[in-house]
Write a structure and sequence with these properties.
Blueprint (H helix, E strand, L loop, with lengths): L1 E9 L6 E2 L6 E5 L2 E4 L1 E3 L4 E2 L4 E8 L4 H7 L6 E8 L2 E13 L3 H20 L1
Antiparallel strand pairs: 1-7, 1-9, 2-6, 3-4, 3-8, 5-7, 8-9
C-alpha cells in the first residue's frame, strides 16, 4: 500500500464533507486516478479550510506501484476527485510504499504453479 502525508483543501463551492462520506480518488496524471483513504483528527471537512492528513492508497499494490513509482515526486499537487468532478486539491509528500505480505505470498504461489506447469509440458 502506498501512503503519504500532506494537506488537503476542498474547493467545490458550497460543499462540506463528513469523514465517512469521503472515498475520493487522487489524480496522479490525466486519467490516472487512485482511491485514497483520508485520515485525520477531524470529523467534518469544510470548503476552503486546509487540513493536515495522512492518505492511504489501498489499491496501490506491487504491480500498480511499479507503474506509479516513476511519477512520484518529493512533493506533489494532486486533484481530489469524485468521478469526473474535482472536489479540491492535495499537496502530498513523504510517500512510503509498504508491500503487502499476502501479495508476496500470492506471487510466490503463482510462480511455483507456473514453474510446475512449464516443467510438466
Amino acid at each position: 500500500m502506498l501512503k503519504a502525508k500532506g494537506e488537503i483543501i476542498f474547493t467545490l463551492e458550497g460543499k462540506n464533507y463528513t469523514a465517512d462520506q469521503l472515498r475520493p480518488a487522487f489524480m496522479f496524471t490525466e486519467g490516472l486516478l487512485f482511491t485514497g483513504g483520508i485520515k485525520s483528527d477531524v470529523d467534518m471537512y469544510y470548503q476552503g479550510q486546509t487540513y493536515n492528513v495522512d492518505v492511504d492508497f489501498y489499491t496501490v499494490e506491487d504491480e500498480a506501484y511499479s507503474m506509479l513509482k516513476p511519477l512520484i515526486k518529493d512533493v506533489m499537487e494532486l486533484a481530489i476527485c469524485s468521478g469526473k468532478r474535482i472536489l479540491g486539491k492535495a499537496i502530498l509528500k513523504d510517500f512510503i510504499y509498504e508491500s503487502s505480505p499476502h501479495i508476496a505470498e500470492e506471487l510466490a504461489v503463482a510462480e511455483a504453479d507456473s514453474k510446475y506447469i512449464n516443467d510438466s509440458l
